[in-house]
């Protein structure tokens, strides 16, 4: 059986892991565009690739703000 790779995480997990903030602050950050997410119906997930790219930018700004 192949090993599965986690490719997305919840918004609160992204906030906790990358920014050191709680669940409510994470959802507010996502609403401001500071945590990138995709929505599938009512489910919001943070793709790890997008979050890693966001965190690797020196100014941590969205691409559209550049």
What can you tell me about this protein's structure?
The longest helix is centred in the first third of the chain and has 9 residues, at 11-19. Helix 1 packs across helix 2. The chain has helices at residues 11-19, 23-31, 48-56; strands at residues 8-10, 38-40, 43-47. The chain is globular and about 30 Å long. Helix content is 41%, strand content 17%. It has one domain. With 66 residues, the chain is α+β, with helices and mostly antiparallel strands.
Task: Give a quick precis of the structure.
By secondary structure, this protein is α+β, with helices and mostly antiparallel strands.
Supply the number of structural domains. 1
What average pLDDT do the residues reach? Answer: 87
Percentage of β-strand residues: 15-25%
Structure annotation, total helices: 3
Low-pLDDT sequence parts: none
General form? globular
What order do the strands of the largest sheet run in, or round the barrel if closed? 1-3-2
Span between termini: 43 Å
The helix/strand series, from N terminus to C terminus, equals EHHEEH
Helix content: 40-55%
Number of strands: 3
Largest sheet: 3 strands, antiparallel
Rg (C-alpha, Å): 12 Å
Q: What class do helices, strands and sheet pairing give?
A: alpha+beta
Furnish the topology, listing elements before pairings.
Layout: E1 8-10, H1 11-19, H2 23-31, E2 38-40, E3 43-47, H3 48-56
Antiparallel strand pairs: 1-3, 2-3
Helix pairs in contact: 1-2
């Amino acid at each position: 059986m192949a090993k599965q790779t986690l490719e997305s995480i919840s918004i609160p997990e992204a906030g906790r892991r990358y920014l050191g903030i709680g669940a409510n602050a994470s959802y507010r950050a996502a609403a401001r565009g500071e945590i990138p997410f995709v929505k599938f119906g009512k489910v919001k997930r943070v793709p790890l690739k997008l979050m890693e790219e966001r965190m690797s930018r020196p100014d941590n700004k969205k691409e559209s703000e550049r």
